[in-house]
Amino acid sequence: MRTPIPEPAAQAQAHLRRDLRTLVEFIEIFCKGQHAAAARSPVALKSHDVPGIVGHEVALCPDCVKLLTHALVKRSACPMNPKPACKHCPNHCYHPTYRRQIRQVMQYSGKRLILTHPIQGLLRYFF
């Protein structure tokens, strides 16, 4: 069995930033589409600079803020290097409730990412 070659720190950080940005964008698309009637407020987390991650202010409903907080903390603390897709990971770090929710978010938002962020959507689709 081959042991994976460790990624350089800068490449790992860039991969983490891209994953965090994708999480924020997916949850933002999901919240706008599925919770349109819910009251939204700007996201301000102690653990992550959300506007710094995506480059703009993000407003979500309280349920989506909880999911986003859980997802960002778990992804940032992931011990796997290189990071596999969560569905292929041997250690599921998401709480089962949040895991179901993030699956719904990915299904809903993945299809719509092409409309809101065409270049990133195509890159995620093909790579």
Would you give an account of this structure?
With 127 residues, the chain is mostly helical. The chain has one domain (9-126). The protein has helices at 9-34, 50-54, 62-76, 96-116, 118-126, and strands spanning 41-42, 59-60. A two-stranded antiparallel ribbon has the order 1-2.
Helix-strand layout with pairing:
Elements: H1 9-34, E1 41-42, H2 50-54, E2 59-60, H3 62-76, H4 96-116, H5 118-126
Antiparallel strand pairs: 1-2
Which word captures the global form? globular
Number of continuous helical runs = 5
Gap between N and C termini: 25 Å
Give the helix level as a range of percent.
55-70%
Mean pLDDT: 83
Number of strands: 2
Helix/strand class: mainly alpha
C-alpha Rg (nearest Å) = 15 Å
Strand content: under 5%
Count of domain modules: 1
Sketch the topology as an H/E string, one letter per element.
HEHEHHH
Looking across the biggest beta sheet, what order are the strands in? 1-2
Largest sheet: 2 strands, antiparallel
Poorly predicted sequence stretches spanning 5 or more consecutive residues: none
Kindly summarize this structure in a few lines.
By secondary structure, the chain is mainly alpha-helical.
Any key phrases for this structure?
127 residues, globular, mainly alpha, 5 helices, 60% helix, two-stranded antiparallel sheet, 2 strands
